Amino acid sequence: MPELPEVETIRSSLEPLVVGRTVTTVEVRRGDLRRPLASDFASSLEGRSIRRARRRAKYLLLDLDDGMSWMLHMGMSGRFLHTPAGAGRAPEKHDHVLVHLSDGSRLVFNDPRRFGLMTVEDAASSSLLEGIGPEPLDERSFNGAYLAGLRARTTRALKDLLMDQRVVAGVGNIYANESLFLAGLRPRRRIARTSAAQCQTLAVAVRTVLGEAIEHRGSSISDFLDGVGRRGGYQWRRRVYDRKGEPCPVCAAAIKSVVVAQRASYYCPRCQR
DNA sequence: GTAAACCTGGCA
DNA sequence: TGCCAGGTTTAC
């Protein structure tokens, strides 16, 4: 579920509630996530205080006072919710890990599909982040020249590239579709057949779409919630994602759907070329 | 490259 | 009942 804007929204909602707090106890109710929790997961968190809440790609990183980081990925259906002290919340079916903090509040990792993962490790040397591409909001590393530079190396479709975490960090299916719409480029267009100017347009579109999605606190198309249980608002602003057959907001042509790189893709046949 | 795998829930 | 889902990895 969560792509870059959703993870960033979780991060910003939790930051004031967890930074400076110390982990008291960790309850693991189900440790068989996408990768099973390490046997020392609880002991590597207990007694540590949280120094900083960061994000890299779709990972939330809670930096600890011993140099390690609590790294979380939400997969498709993960939620990471903070519950204030005294607000009793009976554990729900898919509450897999409960982390109690020094102020009596707690963090709950809930994930029906269990595609998410959590580890405590040195983020700087973590294999999870190895090979992840540039952050799209950093225009020094992600820009038209960077995309244009890929043209000599691959013939892949634009949509396939945008969703590849080694090419650009944090873009998933919703925002790849929305970015291509804003850029006026079809999902199946080959990057080799994309001009330098179009690469520049696409880079700007990705940043624009992600920035707008962060402003609207992410997309709650079915069930995304931020760290304190609020829904996002970008689902009301999406132009093409999951709108097959509906009129294009620009030209009213019916939105089409095709599969690119195993994922449903949506585009306007008139606005996108 | 492409398909299938992981897992649960919602919807037609 | 079958298909689909915001993701990633692994195997032909």
Brief sketch in words of this structure:
The chain has 273 residues and is an alpha+beta fold. The chain has helices at 4-18, 41-45, 144-149, 158-162, 173-183, 196-215, and strands at residues 23-28, 50-56, 59-64, 69-73, 79-83, 95-101, 106-110, 117-121, 256-260, 263-267.
The total of beta strands comes to 10
Quaternary organisation of the protein chains: single chain
* Largest sheet, spatial ordering of strands: 1-6-7-5
What helical percentage do the residues reach? 10-25%
Radius of gyration: 20 Å
Mind explaining what this structure looks like?
The protein is globular. It is α+β, with helices and mostly antiparallel strands and about 270 residues long. It has six helices and ten strands. It has helices at about 5-20, 40-45, 145-150, 160, 175-185, 195-215, and strands at about 25-30, 50-55, 60-65, 70-75, 80-85, 95-100, 105-110, 115-120, 255-260, 265. The longest helix is centred in the C-terminal third of the chain and has 20 residues, at about 195-215. The protein is about 25% helix and about 20% strand. The structure holds a DNA duplex (12 and 12 nucleotides).
Would you spell out the secondary-structure blueprint of this structure?
Layout: H1 4-18, E1 23-28, H2 41-45, E2 50-56, E3 59-64, E4 69-73, E5 79-83, E6 95-101, E7 106-110, E8 117-121, H3 144-149, H4 158-162, H5 173-183, H6 196-215, E9 256-260, E10 263-267
Antiparallel strand pairs: 1-6, 2-3, 3-4, 4-8, 5-7, 6-7, 9-10
This protein binds a DNA duplex (12 and 12 nucleotides) through helix 5.
Key phrases:
273 residues, alpha+beta, four-stranded antiparallel beta sheet, 6 helices, 10 strands, 23% helix, 21% strand, globular, DNA-binding
